Amino acid sequence: MTKHARIIEYIKKLEVGSKISVRQLANDLNVSEGTAYRAIKDAQLAGYVCTMPRIGTIRIEKKTDEAIEHLSFAEVVNIVEGSVMGGKSGLHKPLSKFLIGAMEVEEMHKFIEPESLLIVGNRKDAQILALKHGAAVLVTGGFDVDDEVIKLADDMGMPLLSSSYDTFTVATIINRAIYKRLVRKEVVRVKDAMVKEPDYLTIDATVGDWRNMYKTTQHSKFPVVDKNMKVCGIVTTNDISSLKDDVLIKDVMSKDPIVLTKDTPVAHAARLMGWEGIKLIPVVEDKRLVGILTRKDAIKALQHLSFQPQIGETADSIVMSRFSMSKTEDGVKLRGKTDPVMLNPYGVASSGALMTIIANAGFEAFRAQKRLETVLDSFTVYFSKPVQLEQEIEIEAKIIDIGRKSGKAEINLMHEEKLVAKAIISARVIDR
């Protein structure tokens, strides 16, 4: 095991809430401070530790996929630019919900739940009530807190936080952070679509081994790994055609293949497959093979996503929600009004917002007419006049050319039957 891997394993075994420092790790494991620093950064990326101003780096509970939309109290400290006054051992815990302490204390106990967060000002009775109910407390306005409250937070293991922001601002910041988490959770990742525990060949395998595996699985493409399960190649039918059984795979495989991590968005993987003309990409974790993503699985995941309701809004969804779509003989039509979110600083529809509508209209034309998933290859657009706020516009996208691997669409954006913009989109088809 390398020094780096040994440090990561050491960090994983630390008790949640433990403080970690570069010097401490270097001394405990007899490694250089540079090696310890890089390992801590990788552990932070992997979600095992969190670094906070004025507190340092602490071991936290790694989030599960189901809990990704929840912020930890440690993350709350960072986003509200706050400080921790007590209950540091509970910083790793997830925030289940938050409430504002604007009601009478007698009524407050009905709403406080374990691992929730009470946002409150200088109200000692409310702070104590929340902590006794297993909730964390965020004191706004930069008020000092009584020593009795700090001791109670330490005894209960629930964070007692402070921020100089007012209550409304803090609530807005936390709400926005939760909302962003929901949008991020919506993105389909490779881990949601990949084949786990895939078939593979080892570096010392032969063409005969490939043929035996093909007979067993009916698959023709396999990743090739070394003794440590590190991906070092891909072998396909084209690589071994007409070769004898005793030829070594390592001599004919395609070396240094493109690989993905489990958290790579499927849309990005599909684009890579389209650009590179490949149908299988190995998925790695710590450089070791953990799965494969096929082009068929990527398309299936993207098509499934297109039928799901959206929880959080992206820039594209905000703009596109202003328009209705209908199918035409050779494409689609979109109708709607320019909205304040689409305006530039000069009060007219921004070119970026209009290009978003144009591009999406082109993709929808391929999807509606040919049932094809595509990725953008090139985009040429010309503008002839501006569009003001609350103006009716119509976008018509027509497929003008379609082949097995690529297609083109022409898009016209009209206002009062006059041309506002014309575009040609060239897209690559993600085939199966």
Automatic annotation (TrEMBL):
<keyword id="KW-0129">CBS domain</keyword>
<dbReference type="InterPro" id="IPR029069">
    <property type="entry name" value="HotDog_dom_sf"/>
</dbReference>
<feature type="domain" description="CBS">
    <location>
        <begin position="253"/>
        <end position="314"/>
    </location>
</feature>
<dbReference type="InterPro" id="IPR006683">
    <property type="entry name" value="Thioestr_dom"/>
</dbReference>
<dbReference type="Pfam" id="PF00571">
    <property type="entry name" value="CBS"/>
</dbReference>
<dbReference type="InterPro" id="IPR051257">
    <property type="entry name" value="Diverse_CBS-Domain"/>
</dbReference>
<dbReference type="InterPro" id="IPR028979">
    <property type="entry name" value="Ser_kin/Pase_Hpr-like_N_sf"/>
</dbReference>
<protein>
    <recommendedName>
        <fullName>CBS domain-containing protein</fullName>
    </recommendedName>
</protein>
<dbReference type="InterPro" id="IPR036388">
    <property type="entry name" value="WH-like_DNA-bd_sf"/>
</dbReference>
<dbReference type="InterPro" id="IPR000644">
    <property type="entry name" value="CBS_dom"/>
</dbReference>
<dbReference type="InterPro" id="IPR046342">
    <property type="entry name" value="CBS_dom_sf"/>
</dbReference>
<dbReference type="Pfam" id="PF03061">
    <property type="entry name" value="4HBT"/>
</dbReference>
<dbReference type="InterPro" id="IPR010766">
    <property type="entry name" value="DRTGG"/>
</dbReference>
<dbReference type="Pfam" id="PF07085">
    <property type="entry name" value="DRTGG"/>
</dbReference>
<feature type="domain" description="CBS">
    <location>
        <begin position="194"/>
        <end position="252"/>
    </location>
</feature>
<dbReference type="InterPro" id="IPR036390">
    <property type="entry name" value="WH_DNA-bd_sf"/>
</dbReference>
